[in-house]
Structure formats: structure tokens, C-alpha cells
Design brief:
- The structure is a single chain.
- This protein is α/β, with parallel strands linked by helices.
- The chain has one domain: 3-Layer(aba) Sandwich (UDP-N-acetylmuramoyl-L-alanine:D-glutamate ligase).
- The chain is built from 13 helices and 16 strands.
- The strands form three sheets. A nine-stranded mixed beta sheet has the order 7-5-1-11-12-13-14-15-16, sandwiched between helices. It has a five-stranded mixed beta sheet with strand order 3-10-9-2-4, with helices on one face.
- The protein is globular.
- It is an enzyme of class 2 (transferase).
- GO terms for molecular function: kinase activity.
- Its EC number is 2.7.1.73.
- Belongs to the carbohydrate kinase PfkB family.
């Protein structure tokens, strides 16, 4: 039976040949191309309230308030009963990144974290699952008796935003939940610096186990830094983790300055490359930078206009493909920069998640490289080891375009891939 519309398969049912293999939603490590991410699972709740509501619950207006589980549950129940909640958003920087990766790649990813054993209809946990791509494999989540994290945004009548944050059980994932097989077969392992705040919680030990397994099996580790204040507080520990384990660091300009002490984003990236193989640096209205290494014998000169800043002619070799420093006989540092797509959206609806969107595009290209190598092992593209399928400049374009899409909408999570009208651009991108 044929069905209308654009489909990858000619028939919905295999009517002309026997096929006992049914599609699986869960990742099959030995067969699938996928990435793995470790995150603090949290749901963002948006609600409009009066000032006396916040005063009654001991919430300080205009600030981020850390509240206990009981207080968060009481606030949530009251908001729900009075119909004040306007939106639920699945949150978490890595959860956002995995979701966006699976939307862009139309392929699987694996989320490591926790989820409540008991999920009620319309509960925050229910909304987390509903707002996450079905391509994100949640079968490796650890069940917990309590709630996952809740970030409640209270909007008062004057437009002021106040936050009540309850970690609940989001940091309770134990190292035993992580299997070596799921890490060793991944195209990349991605995580954030937030678990470093919780030395007394299981999630930090779980993070360290994942990092060890990824390095053991030569799986690229991607670290996103979180916030400027977090980097300032844990700067030495973050630096050491980057030096010991990390291939790719993703950060914004404030986090870059906190990490390296450099106010120039270009010099900050240059400094960070002494510790890792690649830097993805989003710089707001300035655009984004992708910096890394290429072997001198494989460098490719750009045809774009040459740019100079603190580093002269810094983008000269941006048509090169990124490599790990360890895979280069004569490594050179390569820098690429791109201005915001079409100057940026006419109206920015949401700045939360733009960096995560850019990172998901980079992860897609890293996974595409591994997939292509499996499918076409004798391709000239794999005569030497590269970290991505495409050049620095092309990955910049892709990451920039995804960031634009995030900035243009209310949610940090994509509801669909890039617009179909850009199919020709995407085809040209992948053909490069």
C-alpha cells in the first residue's frame, strides 16, 4: 500500500518481500549511529502570579530562589489548581542539545539521567517526555521515587521574572546505570559542567565514569560550560577536566573569559586550544567562532574574505576539516568565524538555547563523519582521521543557521528541522 507525502521508504508495509526486522526505538550500540549525553533532567514551568503569591511562599522577587521539594510541590499544585501555568518546557542544556540533534539528524541519541518511576498525566515529568523527540532513547534513564528537577518561572504583573528552582532527584543518577557498551559505541559523549557542583551527589561520580569510558574507547568528549558564575567558581577543576578528557569545549563569550582570562573571544579560543582539540564559541551579536586543529599537509585555504583581529588572517585555513591534535603530524590552529545568519532574527523571542542549538549542529556533523566512514570506508574523506565530516567554515554555517532558528522561537527546542525551502542549501552543505 502506497501512502502520500515524502517518505524514505517506498512502501509502509513490505508487501513484496519478507522482512521480520521491525524498527527499534531503543539504540542498538553495535548497529546504530548515535550520541550519548548526561544531564540533570529538569522541567521549566511558566506561570503568571501576583506579588503576594511570592511573598506567601517565601520567594524573593526578581531572584533565583533555591527551594526544597516540599515547597516546590506546594507552589506547583497551587499554580495548577488556579490555572496559572501557561507553559511547560522540557529543560536541561544537554536534554535540549540531544533533542535538537535528533530533530536535525532524524536519528537516535541516548539520554542519561533520572526519571520518576510514577508519572501522572499532565505532571512535569509527563511534559518532559511529551516535549522530547521520540528519537531520544530514554531507556537508559534511572528510575527514582521522587520528582525530577523543576524550574518554576514566576512572572509578576510588572513583567519581572522570578525563579523558584527545586533540584529534587535530578542529581541522583548512579554510576552503575551507565554501561560501557553504550559509551564505547557512541559517536560522541556530551555533557555540561553543572554536575561539578554536586560532589556529594551520585551524578558527579557518574560523570567521571562516563569520561573515563569515553577516553578509554577514544570517543570524543564534548563539554558545554553552563554559566559564567559556574566557571568562575570551579575554574581550576573545569580546566583540569578539559585537559584530561575533553575534545570539544562549547561556551559563550562570558564563560570563555571566565575560563581563560581573555576578554577577546579569539584569544580566549586560542588559549583553550592548548587544552582541547576544538572550541565552539558563541558570541551573541558578533556571531560564532569554530576553532581547532588541522594537519599542515591537509590545510585548505578559504575563498571567503580574509579576516584579521587580534590574530592576523585568522580564517585563512577555514576550509580545512577539523582533526584532533593527536592525529596531526604537524598540527596548526585553524579559526573560522561567521556573522549572525541574515543579521539575526528581526525579533529575538528567546536567547535561551541558542548555544545548545549550535552545538547540536556540530554534533550532527561529528556523527555524520562516523556514519559515512561506516557506509563508505574506502572514501578518500577517511584516508586520514578527522573529527567532523565538513570543513570549519561549513560547520559554522550549519551551527549559525540552527542558532537563528532557536532565537526566532519561544522554546530552546526545535519542533522540526530546518525549513524545506533550504533543502538545496543543505544538499550542497553535505556534498562538500
Amino acid at each position: 500500500m502506497k501512502f502520500p507525502g515524502r517518505r524514505k521508504l517506498k512502501h509502509y508495509f513490505p508487501v513484496t518481500q519478507a522482512n521480520s526486522n521491525l524498527p527499534k526505538s531503543e539504540v542498538q550500540p553495535s548497529k546504530d549511529t548515535y550520541i550519548v549525553g548526561l544531564d540533570e533532567t529538569i522541567v521549566d514551568v511558566i506561570a503568571a502570579v501576583e506579588d503576594d503569591f511570592m511573598a506567601r511562599h517565601g520567594i524573593r522577587k526578581g531572584l533565583s530562589n533555591l527551594v526544597d521539594t516540599e515547597t516546590a510541590s506546594k507552589i506547583y499544585r497551587e499554580l495548577l489548581a488556579e490555572g496559572r501555568i501557561s507553559d511547560h518546557f522540557a529543560g536541561g542544556t544537554i536534554g535540549n542539545t540531544l533533542h535538537n540533534y535528533s530533530v536535525l539528524a532524524d536519528d537516535k541519541s541516548v539520554l542519561l539521567g533520572v526519571m520518576s518511576n510514577s508519572i501522572m498525566l499532565n505532571s512535569p515529568e509527563y511534559h518532559y517526555i511529551c516535549h522530547t523527540s521520540s528519537k531520544v532513547d530514554m531507556s537508559h534513564l534511572q528510575g527514582v521515587a521522587g520528582d525530577i528537577g523543576r524550574g518554576i518561572t514566576l512572572i509578576s504583573q510588572d513583567g519581572e521574572r522570578t525563579f523558584a528552582i527545586a533540584p529534587n532527584a535530578m542529581d541522583d543518577i548512579c554510576p552503575e546505570v551507565v554501561t560501557e557498551e553504550i559509551i564505547s559505541n557512541a559517536s560522541a559523549f556530551v555533557t555540561c559542567a553543572y554536575p561539578l557542583r554536586h560532589a556529594n551527589k551520585p551524578i558527579k561520580a557518574t560523570l567521571m565514569k562516563c569520561l573515563e569510558l569515553a577516553n578509554k574507547h577514544n570517543v570524543p568528549v564534548v563539554l558545554t560550560l553552563g554559566t559564567q558564575h559556574l566557571v568562575e567558581e570551579y575554574c581550576d577543576e573545569i580546566k583540569q577536566i578539559i585537559k584530561d578528557y575533553v575534545s570539544v569545549v562549547a561556551m559563550n563569550e562570558q564563560e570563555a573569559q571566565a575560563l581563560t582570562g581573555q576578554s577577546s573571544v579569539l584569544l580566549a579560543a586560542q588559549t583553550a586550544l592548548d587544552w582541547c582539540d576544538m572550541v565552539l564559541l558563541t558570541a551573541g551579536a558578533e556571531g560564532l567562532y569554530l576553532c581547532g586543529y588541522s594537519d599542515d599537509v591537509h590545510k585548505r585555504e578559504t575563498t571567503h574574505p580574509i579576516k584579521s583581529a587580534e590574530i592576523a588572517d585568522f580564517n585563512r585555513w577555514e576550509f580545512s576539516r577539523p582533526q584532533r591534535q593527536q592525529d596531526c603530524q604537524s598540527p596548526i590552529k585553524v579559526y573560522s568565524h561567521i556573522d549572525p545568519y541574515m543579521g539575526g532574527p528581526e525579533r529575538i523571542r528567546n536567547t535561551n538555547g541558542a548555544g545548545d542549538g549550535a552545538l547540536s549542529a556540530l554534533l550532527h556533523d561529528i556523527a555524520a563523519n562516523g556514519f559515512h566512514q561506516q557506509q563508505v570506508p574506502n572514501s578518500s574523506k577517511h584516508e586520514t582521521k578527522h573529527l567532523t565530516y565538513s570543513s570549519f567554515a561549513q560547520v559554522c554555517k550549519y551551527a549559525n543557521r540552527v542558532s537563528y532558528e532557536i532565537l526566532s522561537q519561544h522554546s530552546p527546542r526545535l519542533s522540526k528541522g530546518l525549513p524545506e525551502r533550504e533543502d538545496s542549501l543543505e544538499q550542497a552543505y553535505w556534498a562538500r
